[in-house]
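We were asked to recover a plausible sequence for a given structure. The inputs and outputs are reproduced exactly as logged, with field labels preserved.

PROBLEM: sequence recovery
POSITIONS: 402
GIVEN STRUCTURE:
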């Protein structure tokens, strides 16, 4: 079955074929006015100006794109969508001045979601991931990654990874998110358990492993041990690093050949230079910095230094209860000083690269998967410009209109 989206006000896509994009190439967007995109099955067959639209024979479903702009389906490469309960009480306490790190140290924060997630059961967990996926879709996300990390026992970690897979997400094993209460603060003993008892099965379900390398969570030595074991089990590597303190995440990520290091709110000039000189992608999470009232990551400095950056929501119940990548593009423009073009590449091609899918997702080009967002806007840059706006008119996911 073919699907033709016709008479689009604009079609905008990151230019070229390289992944990941960095430097000047990050800001290059191809824009076609009065455009069409033709999908065949789950792939893009052709695109161009309306005046160049060939005569089509056979069955073609047509979509009227007048007044709309087409961009690639958005890719959210960093979320924590597998959780039970919520943290609205904690949110209210933080609004009154309580700090995120203090709540965590007192057994609240991440550990309160661990309690709720363990109690939820697999069916409820799957419903939660599907609900969160649908929220993301409403904001134009056609591919999402989600971490586990709120089980921290064998059964709930594996159930979380299965739930993410069943909901169509890309699963990451965040087996080292926090030290659960039964290990009484002994991170090494917890890692013995996680690597011996959980990793063998987690490696069959997940594509990557992730760790929270931070004061109050895991240190660099523990991170090295965890990540080396995960790499040996065949998983790609990711790190939560430099969220509150520079604790060695960037050098370790570079040394181990990680796909990404995510957060970077505390990254200084040396870290910026090290990351920029490497293949590791810096994943910027401005909604999380905003939500916790923390300094923003040095997005402009990273891009100017030549780093490959991606942009993601960090959707989770504590530090970023926000599923909107367009909102993150607005924050990237206003807070990180990234252009709309740089933001578009950061939450499409570069995010797809972080998920190992940079050759098939994140661009509007023949052969790429037919994932398309139709923006209710006269100019594609409304993606960043319309702060919190109702931007998404329709999406096409793998060639299917939704
Ligand atoms: O990316 N920093 C560690 N993990 C998550 C937050 C998890 C939570 O607060 O529940 C993050 O911000
Ligand atoms: Fe996160």
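RECOVERED SEQUENCE:
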């Amino acid at each position: 079955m073919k699907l033709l989206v016709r008479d689009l006000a604009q079609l905008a896509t990151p230019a070229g074929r390289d992944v990941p994009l960095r430097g000047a190439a990050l800001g290059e967007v191809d824009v076609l006015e009065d455009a069409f995109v033709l999908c065949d099955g789950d792939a893009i067959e052709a695109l161009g100006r309306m005046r160049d639209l060939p005569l089509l024979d056979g069955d073609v479903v047509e979509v009227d794109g007048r007044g709309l702009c087409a961009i690639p389906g958005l890719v959210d490469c960093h979320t924590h969508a597998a959780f039970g309960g919520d943290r609205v009480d904690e949110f209210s306490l933080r609004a009154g001045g309580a700090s995120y790190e203090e709540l965590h140290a007192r057994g609240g924060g991440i550990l309160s979601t661990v309690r709720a997630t363990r109690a939820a059961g697999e069916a409820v967990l799957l419903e939660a991931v599907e609900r969160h996926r649908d929220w993301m879709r409403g904001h134009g996300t056609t591919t999402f990654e989600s971490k586990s990390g709120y089980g921290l026992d064998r059964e709930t970690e594996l159930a979380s990874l299965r739930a993410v897979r069943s909901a169509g997400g890309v699963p990451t094993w965040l087996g080292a998110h926090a030290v659960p209460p039964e290990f009484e603060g002994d991170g090494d003993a917890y890692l013995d358990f996680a690597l011996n008892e959980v990793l063998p099965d987690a490696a069959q379900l997940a594509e990557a492993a992730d760790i929270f390398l931070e004061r109050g969570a895991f240190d660099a030595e523990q991170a090295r041990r965890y990540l080396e074991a995960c790499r040996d089990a065949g998983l790609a590597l990711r790190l939560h690093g430099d969220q509150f303190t520079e604790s060695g995440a960037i050098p370790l990520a570079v040394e181990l050949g990680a796909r990404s290091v995510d957060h970077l709110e505390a990254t200084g000039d040396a870290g910026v230079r090290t990351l920029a000189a490497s293949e590791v992608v810096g994943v910027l999470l401005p909604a999380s910095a905003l939500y916790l009232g923390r300094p923003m990551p040095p997005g402009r400095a990273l891009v100017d230094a030549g780093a490959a950056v991606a942009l993601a929501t960090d959707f989770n119940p504590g530090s970023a209860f926000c599923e909107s990548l367009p909102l993150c593009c607005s924050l990237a423009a206003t807070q990180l000083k990234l252009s709309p073009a740089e933001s578009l590449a950061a939450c499409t091609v570069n995010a797809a690269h972080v998920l190992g899918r940079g050759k098939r997702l994140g661009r509007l080009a023949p052969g790429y998967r037919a994932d398309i967002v139709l923006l209710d806007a006269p100019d594609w840059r409304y993606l960043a410009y319309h702060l919190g706006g109702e931007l998404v008119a329709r999406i096409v996911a793998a060639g299917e209109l939704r």
